[in-house]
Design brief:
Layout: E1 8-9, E2 13-17, H1 23-30, H2 33-37, H3 50-63, E3 67-74, E4 80-89, E5 94-101, H4 110-125, E6 130-136, H5 140-148, E7 152-163, E8 166-176, H6 177-185
Parallel strand pairs: 5-6
Antiparallel strand pairs: 1-2, 2-3, 3-4, 4-5, 6-8, 7-8
Helix pairs in contact: 1-3, 4-5
Length: 187
């Protein structure tokens, strides 16, 4: 049975379902060399038709309540900034947080703001027990996003992935439901 896809808001952002009309903007923003270099699965150059295929996949997964991938848009003008997701593992009641923001919008706090809202969604609406995220160690800005959102550094796996013929270390941050609830009580 198809679930209705949620719309989440923050002070500056609206997180909504990805639509096929987003495909060209996804291709332009995600296809930037800088974005591809900081993510495991985004290719560069970004192939023709890949954005549409990815968006359709996220819509199916979202309708089934398996994964939730949101377009990150600015609340004031609906400008598409990037994407953020929770990849759900029901067997362990946890999810992996993933995100990317287009280069023109880096350094403005959008990723952190969206990540905080995703943690709230994961713990308060999906009642998950744990949310974690990985990042390439050579991308410390991503670790800062995770820590500013309330996640704690857990460690790194050395030479964990092969990207462009180079083995990269992957660091991990996470937060548990108990830690999230405690953060609400003390903030």
């Amino acid at each position: 049975m198809e679930k209705s896809f949620p719309v989440l808001e923050t002070e500056r952002l609206k997180l909504r379902r990805l639509e096929l009309t987003d495909a060209e903007t996804v291709r332009l923003l995600a296809g930037a060399e800088e974005v591809a270099a900081t993510t495991l699965l985004i290719p560069h150059p970004y192939p023709e038709g890949a954005a549409e295929e990815w968006i359709r996949h996220t819509q199916v997964e979202g309708a089934e309540g398996k994964d939730y991938t949101f377009a990150v848009t600015r609340l004031t003008d609906s400008l598409f900034l990037g994407a953020i997701s929770l990849h759900i593992n029901l067997a362990h009641n946890r999810a992996e947080l993933g995100y990317w923001i287009g280069v023109p919008y880096w350094g403005q706090g959008y990723a952190t703001e969206a990540a905080k809202r995703m943690l709230k969604f994961g713990f308060e609406e999906l009642t998950l027990n744990r949310i974690f995220a990985g990042y390439f160690v050579n991308n410390p800005a991503s670790r800062r996003v995770q820590e500013k959102a309330g996640m704690k550094y857990e460690g790194a796996r050395r030479q964990d992935v092969l990207k462009r013929n180079v083995y990269l270390d992957v660091g991990f941050c996470a937060i548990t439901r108990d830690e999230y609830i405690a953060s609400l009580l003390f903030n």
